[in-house]
Write a structure and sequence with these properties.
This protein has 21 helices and 17 strands. By secondary structure, it is of the alpha/beta class.
Length: 625
């Protein structure tokens, strides 16, 4: 028999192949600024987004996904730490995350600590809410600066960071000269306060704008990346945030005559007035051809032609970003890295395009809080769509679960891994968003069909909240009223629904108070059980239920403690007592009733029923062994 002889280069090939097979998956983490679900994958038939749709075709699209606060800084701080804004204490665009939470842990920081090479470029964190290194603890190498990007021959960095039109650049140049003559210190602010068009349509290469430069630099990174360690590459695109600048070919994808305006452009019936705003961000984009005015309700009243142009620009900018993402994915494939790279695509919040006469984000309405989340894991490679509520705080535990690294304690979300396998629907009843209006904070609870928003006076969810703290309430039914035309909070037929939401909100607020102390206390109480049999059974059954219903950690601990108390109580009352089966049944029935009552403190009726069903299933399995 001939012996198999491996040449040195073949031996090296097999060694490298083995190393790749045993290596943890890489992560390509794509953030898209101001991205709402204007994507084919979200059933928007007008959108031209083939590359993002292709990612969704091999992954899971979360159709009812919501941000924690619909504005860049707070949203990104929440996404990247897995903590809600009332914990991060970032509610605006000036608070630096680590000034108030110096030891807070971020997703890239955690992956770096677990052996990943973490690299970032573009807009990941909002730069106003982190240090000059874009959160230095998060990155293995210094965050890649925008000033290092290169542009095609004949093009320099876009004017004001946005524009390549010669006409616009000339006007900016003239204003700069005027400002210099006047001795203005902050010339960019001086220019922007007078002239900053909300869109631009010129025939330039993709790489002439900053997002094209981001894509090109990302491709260079992938080409030269050291694959001996798993990598976490965070790429943050800046469009379709205003201004809507994109090469002409992306504008040409859409017929402006076919653009439909928002069908409902006023406040809802029975409004809570502070829920609305004057679209100040939109009004900050200046052009001599635009005259901003407010209607009688204090909402921005835009000319219909301008509305169409803005909607056109938003879709064009989205298609432009889609094309850049396609180039990066193609590079992954060419390098053979696609087979071991999880792709995550997310937007930091939605965007109003004229609904309620609102533009931009900055609200608790559907168009502001709902934003895409798509996850594609090549090891699973299944197309799934999830319509139940999910939140961006779920992303941190999900990525840990997918890569089999430790999930940090005290995250606010749950793992969505089971969705990627099509195994289960989340047990999450609602997603929570919030938005401040002065000293008031609105908390919005979005279920499959409904949205309940409660406005609280001068308090946050981490403080005790009472009935007298409520300033206003909203209730919208998307099945019967998809455009939020009526606040149904006081309608007779919705009073039972209102009461249910008030109970859910009260439970949520209660859960946020001293969260760390609650978890720590429960762990200590549960760490040294008196009945080892009861604790072992409680652990086994809790693990089974949690795998099927995917609860957050705090609720898993509560469930484990409650089941332990049930089994320990039953054992104490029945073992060695010489009781008949009928006598035991009476005890078990009483314990079951007490346990159900206890579980209802933290779970809904539907959840408790499902918990009991799963508990019985696992009990039968254990008793047969």
């Amino acid at each position: 028999m001939k012996k198999l002889i491996l040449l040195p280069f073949l031996l090296l090939y097999f060694v490298n192949l083995s190393a790749q097979e045993n290596q943890k998956p890489n992560i390509l983490f794509i953030a898209v600024d101001d991205l709402k679900p204007t994507l084919g994958a979200y059933n928007d038939n007008f959108a031209n987004t083939p590359n993002i749709d292709a990612i969704a075709d091999k992954g899971t699209t979360f159709l009812n996904n919501h941000v924690q606060q619909a504005i860049c800084g707070p949203s990104r701080a929440s996404v990247l730490t897995g903590k809600r804004p009332d914990y991060t204490q970032v509610w605006d665009l000036k608070t630096k995350m680590r000034d108030v939470n110096p030891d807070i842990l971020t997703i890239p920081q955690h992956f770096k600590n677990e052996g990943y090479t973490t690299i970032g470029l573009g807009k990941i964190f909002d730069p106003r809410c982190v240090d000059n290194q874009k959160d230095q603890p998060s990155w293995s190498v210094p965050f890649i600066k925008e000033s290092s990007f290169s542009y095609p021959e004949g093009f320099s960095q876009p004017a004001l960071g946005f524009y390549q039109s010669e006409e616009i650049k000339n006007k900016i140049y003239e204003l700069r000269k005027k400002g210099q003559k006047k001795g203005v210190k902050n010339l960019n602010k001086y220019i922007r306060d007078q002239y900053k068009p909300p869109y631009e349509n010129v025939d330039v290469p993709d790489g002439a704008y900053v997002d094209g430069a981001i894509a090109n630099r990302s491709i260079e990174i992938i080409e030269n990346i050291d694959n001996s360690k798993p990598f976490f590459l965070a790429v943050g695109f800046k469009r379709p945030h205003l201004p809507f600048v994109a090469p002409k070919k992306y504008w040409d994808l859409y017929d402006e005559n076919k653009i439909e305006l928002a069908p409902y452009q006023k406040k809802s019936k029975n409004p809570v007035d502070i829920a609305y705003h004057k679209a100040g961000e939109m009004q900050s984009y200046k052009d001599p051809s635009i005259n901003y005015k407010l209607n009688s309700s204090g909402l921005l009243d835009l000319d219909k032609n301008l509305q169409k142009k803005l909607i056109h620009g938003y879709y064009a900018a989205t298609s432009y970003i889609d094309a850049q993402i396609g180039k990066i994915i193609e590079k992954l494939k060419n390098k053979g890295l696609d087979k071991n790279t999880i792709i995550v695509l997310w937007g930091d919040h939605g965007w109003h395009l004229g609904d309620h006469s609102l533009w931009n984000k900055h609200s608790n309405f559907e168009q502001a809080t709902r934003s895409p989340l798509i996850i594609s894991d090549p090891r699973i490679n299944e197309k799934n769509k999830v319509s139940s509520p999910t939140e961006f705080v779920d992303l941190f535990p999900t990525l840990c679960d997918l890569t089999e690294i430790k999930v940090p304690e005290n995250l606010d979300g749950i793992s969505l891994k089971s969705h990627l396998k099509g195994e289960a629907n989340t047990s999450k009843i609602f997603a929570v968003s919030q938005y401040p209006r002065g000293k008031r904070m609105g908390y919005s609870f979005r279920t499959n069909q409904l949205r309940y928003t409660v406005w609280i006076n001068n308090k946050k969810s981490t403080e005790p909240i009472y009935k007298e703290d409520i300033f206003g309430e909203e209730l919208y039914d998307y099945k019967n009223d998809p455009y939020e035309t009526e606040n149904k909070i006081d309608y007779k037929e919705y009073q039972k629904t209102k009461a249910t939401f008030q109970t859910l909100a009260a439970r949520y607020f209660k859960s946020q108070i001293n969260q760390k102390k609650i978890i720590k206390k429960e762990v200590v109480e549960n760490s040294e059980p008196k009945n080892k049999y009861a604790q072992k059974r409680a652990n086994t059954i809790t693990e089974f239920i949690a795998s099927q219903m995917t609860f957050p950690e705090q609720k898993v601990i509560f469930l484990n403690k409650t089941l332990y108390q049930k089994y320990a109580s039953n054992a104490k009352k029945t073992r060695g007592k010489n009781l008949t089966q009928d006598e035991k049944k009476v005890i078990y029935k009483a314990t079951f009733s007490a346990t159900r009552k206890k579980l209802l403190e933290e779970f809904t009726n539907i959840q408790v029923t499902e918990i009991s069903k799963l508990e019985r299933t696992k009990q039968r399995e254990l008793n047969q062994k």
